[in-house]
Amino acid sequence: MTFDEARQCVLHEVPPKRGDCETVPVLSATGRVLAEDIAADRDYPPFHRSARDGFAVRAADVPGELQVIGEVRAGQIFTGQMSANGAVEIMTGAPLPPGADAVVMVEHVDRRENRVAIPRSYTSGENFTPKGAESKQGEIVLHAGHRIGFTETAVLAMVGRERVQVFRQPRVAIVPTGDEIVEAGETPLPHQIRNSNAWSLSVQVRRAGGAPEILPIARDSYESTFASVKTGLESDLLLLSGGVSAGKYDIVEQVLADFGARFFFTRVLIQPGQPLVFGAIGEKFFFGLPGNPASTMVTFELFARAVLERLSGCEDAMMPLLRARLTRDFRHKPGLTRFLPARLSEDGSTVEPIGWQGSGDIPSLVRANAFLVADADRESWSEGDDIRVLLK
Ligand code: AMP
Ligand code: MG
User: Fold this and answer.
1) Ligand 1, from 197, 224, 362: best to mutate by most atoms within 8 Å of Cβ?
2) 364: phi then psi, degrees, rounded to nearest 5
3) Lowest CB count within 10 Å: 62, 101, 320, 364, which one?
């Protein structure tokens, strides 16, 4: 499968799920997915709200010289009567006096004691936001399936919600595999490697809205891997790292098959991450992610993240690829879509490929803040050409 086909396959197989809910305080709901529709409790704005400091007037009276008949500031209402050729001094955020239909900016008037000269004409509706223009009472302002960020939090506060219903976070089992792998807290023998994948995956899972559960390292034996998969299937999503290449001891696929797995794909034309397994056992989805650290990280971002977002109830699984200008000539061997460590400039306009030793090179990944996406059907790019970029 090509990269695009595999991505489509994932989105096709995993529709957004409406699972169990729980109610949590809004300020603890950051990153969670809303499980209820939120309606406006009243019109927004709740009154004709001045957008400027200046003078509330009747548009029909200007241009002209008007009499200042009072003042209204934010948090107050004007109780007097708006008369012909009258102006009420008004502050940003204050309610328009009844009868007024425009606000003249303070910068545009010439004030002499209780009179203001307004040189230009105004149309009805200028410089204030009409009552209900942002949303009407009862209108849905936030839909279930939306992830809660700072703007959503503001809406929840706006309508007076202190607690909110969210979907339960999917539990994600992380199963590292490999005879050579030891825990991060251990001192490895010269031929052993510390388990970094379980930790990086754990961070990626959290960021995508899941609750990670790191299982003990499975060894490259049928029995050990079988036992881990069995435990892992108790979670909502199973992520295995390693053991999916063509090596003699790569037995993850065989074990999954013996659990009755349906495989949606077992190889994707990408690098890093070509041997990549995605499937389901019963209702449970799983990924066999290739073990090289960059492969594990990249394939999670490209595919597993979308599955997790869908399982969290999230309506849209976003993966925006930006475009930036290359700082130097770049070429690769066509056939695979490559995701290579790169440094995006501060303003996002240019991108610089970072030299690396291949998908086992973890230190180079921290020097990168993005991955450059080299299309499978193109061989070379010149300095200044646009290329796609995936943010880290
Ligand atoms: P594999 O996909 O099992 O063939 O592993 C590919 C490479 O990734 C090997 O060099 C492994 O040592 C390395 N690797 C596998 N699992 C992990 C892990 N959990 N943490 C760090 N490196 C790993
Ligand atoms: Mg291995």
Assistant:
1) 197
2) -70, -25
3) 320
Cβ(268)–Cβ(276) below 8 Å: yes
- Give the atom of ligand 1 at the shortest distance from the alpha carbon of 198: 19
> Is 358:371 a contact under the CB 8 Å cutoff?
no
Burial 304-328 (b: 16+ CB within 10 A, else e): bbbbbbbbbbbeebeeeebebebee
Residues with CB under 6 A from ligand 1: 176, 178, 180-181, 193, 195-198, 241-243, 245, 247, 290-293, 360
Q: How far is the CA of 291 from the centre of ligand 1 (A)?
A: 4
Determine if the peptide bond prior to 170 is cis (ω within 30°). no
Q: How far is the CA of 212 from the centre of ligand 2 (A)?
A: 21
User: Using CA atoms, how far apart are residues 358 and 374, in angstroms rounded to an integer?
Assistant: 15
Assign 3-class secondary structure to 274-294.
CCCEEEEECCEEEEEECCCHH
In this structure, which amino acid lies at residue 374?
A
Atom of ligand 1 nearest to the CA of 241: 16
Phi then psi dihedrals of residue 312, to 5 deg: -85, 0
CA 248 from centroid of its chain's CA atoms: 39
Distance 247 CA to ligand 1 centre (A): 12
Q: Lowest-confidence range among 56-65, 300-309, 312-321?
A: 312-321
pLDDT band at 140 (very low <50, low <70, confident <90, very high): very high
Specify the DSSP class assigned to residue 218. Answer: B
Give the dihedral of Cα atoms 263, 269, 270, 271; nearest 10 deg: 110
The answer to whether 90 and 55 are in contact (CB under 8 A) is yes
According to the model, what pLDDT value does residue 317 have?
86
The count of C-alpha atoms lying within 13 angstroms of the C-alpha of 40, restricted to the half-sphere facing its C-beta, is 16
